[in-house]
Specification:
443 residues, mainly beta, Methylamine Dehydrogenase, Chain H, disordered C terminus
Length: 443
């Protein structure tokens, strides 16, 4: 269960300066958790790659920037990488299912007639949702507007996302970047179905969908443009759509007036939802877990941090995401049985990457995200595999797991700095994406 339309939202306000400085050791180590092996998924020539989803079968969807700055939708599986993009156009994959169907978004070669930069790459080309299977990328329909984006896809082939209609959005400021209304939608059986937004919200975005057809996302008002920080949505209400009914998931005290707002990011087949909500005053945000029985639970942050975001959840209720300190430095976390743990304390001390974001987790406990390379400073996709009964005989588990936490606590593994290319691309994804919000500072 994973949509990555939302990845830019969480990068809102995450970096005060885009260099990753050495920080205090993490706290809250959970002794019951397994340790993990880490694989740098590359590709080696890319300064920035990001896996957005991992299926239960181990198929990983995401994107990688080429040296020329073009974003390519890619798949990783069993050590191999497959480029499914179209030459010369930006694209990204955000979901995959057991049938090897892949969903995402891609630019077309046509300029947007309203001057919108929907894909967020500065090209001002029309951006369309797609469904890919067996080497064929097929565009999905909109609601009469020019643009749309596809997020997660479930095992029934149903896709969650958002699409423009043909009506001008009265909440948009003059000059864009958004002109038309965006509505949450599901594509299924070759048709598009519009979902309701919270009363009074003209815009909405669907991110995650489970195998029961339940959908999570958000609604709010028009995207706005800040000359210093780029484009970001104003997501006021975290929402769950269930059998045609829209359910407001509540909030942690914030209104979503600034960002990243109140957002349901993903849900599992048990109907448990993870996301991000602003706290009272809308200056900080925390990861949340929502259940129908208990409502919204604040998952807090790693010790010493101030912000966090819950990005993915598996059917066992394990959550991955990101925790951020006051200076904007981030680290990937795993939340398990009521405790949040820095994922860097669970990996070998000689891991090729320092793990910054956890983006996906499947039923086997395998985690994907991105981290920074110590040698180059580039940001690369990673796969973290647990040393547990689901992975017997996994190479690298026997001799390294006992020293990972001890080495991290001793401060033997400083955080690397980002390369210039990686910094530029991270700035682009933060500042230009449709689902971005303001940075807390400048480079």
């Amino acid at each position: 269960m994973k949509s990555r339309l939302l990845f830019s939202i969480l990068r809102a306000g995450l970096f005060a300066g885009l260099a990753i400085q050495a920080g205090a050791p993490a706290q809250g180590q959970n002794s019951q958790l397994p340790h993990y092996t880490v694989t740098d998924l590359g590709p080696s020539a890319s300064p920035f790659s990001d896996p957005t989803f991992v299926s239960n079968e181990g198929l990983i969807a995401g994107f990688a920037f080429a040296p020329d700055g073009i974003s390519h939708a890619v798949l990783w599986h069993r050590g191999l990488i497959t480029d499914i993009s179209k030459p010369g156009l930006n694209s990204a994959a955000y979901g995959a299912n057991a049938k090897r169907q892949v969903s995402g978004l891609a630019e077309t070669s046509n300029s947007d007639p309203n001057g919108e930069d929907f894909c967020g790459h500065g090209t001002f080309l029309i951006c369309l949702p797609f469904l890919w299977r067996n080497g064929m990328m097929t565009p999905l329909m909109t609601l009469g507007g020019n643009n749309g984006e596809a997020g997660e896809i479930n095992n029934r082939g149903e896709v969650a996302g958002n699409a423009e209609n043909a009506f001008p959005d009265s909440t948009c400021p003059p000059g864009g970047p958004q002109v038309l209304q965006e509505k949450p939608v599901i594509w299924k059986n070759g048709r598009i179905e519009e979902l309701d937004t919270f009363p009074g919200d003209p815009d909405g975005w669907a991110f995650g969908i489970n195998d029961k057809g339940q959908v999570v996302g958000a609604s709010g008002i028009c995207s706005i443009l800040n000359p210093d920080t780029g484009v970001y949505i104003l997501s006021r209400h975290a929402l769950l759509w269930d059998k045609g009914k829209v359910i407001d998931l509540g909030n942690l005290g914030g209104t979503g007036a600034i960002g990243p707002g109140n957002i349901g990011h993903e849900l599992n087949n048990r109907g448990q939802v993870v996301g991000t909500s602003d706290l009272k005053g809308d200056t900080q945000f925390h990861a949340f877990l929502w259940t129908s029985e208990a409502g919204m639970q604040d998952l807090g942050t790693l010790q010493g941090d101030v912000n966090s975001g819950g990005i993915a959840i598996n059917d066992a209720g394990e959550v991955v995401g990101v925790s951020i300190d006051v200076s904007g430095n981030s680290r990937a976390f795993l939340w398990h049985n009521g405790a949040m743990t820095d994922l860097n304390t669970l990996i070998p001390p000689d891991s090729p990457l320092y793990l910054l974001f956890g983006h996906g987790i499947n039923s086997r406990g395998e985690i994907v995200g991105f981290g920074v390379q110590g040698a180059t400073g580039d940001i690369h996709a990673f796969l973290a595999v647990p040393c547990d009964q689901n992975h017997p005989g996994l190479e690298g588990c026997e001799d390294k797991q006992s020293t990972a936490a001890e080495a991290y606590e001793a401060g033997e593994r400083p955080r690397p700095r980002l390369s210039e290319g990686a910094r530029d691309l991270l700035q682009q994804r933060l500042g230009l994406g449709r689902f971005a919000a303001p940075l807390t500072g400048t480079r």
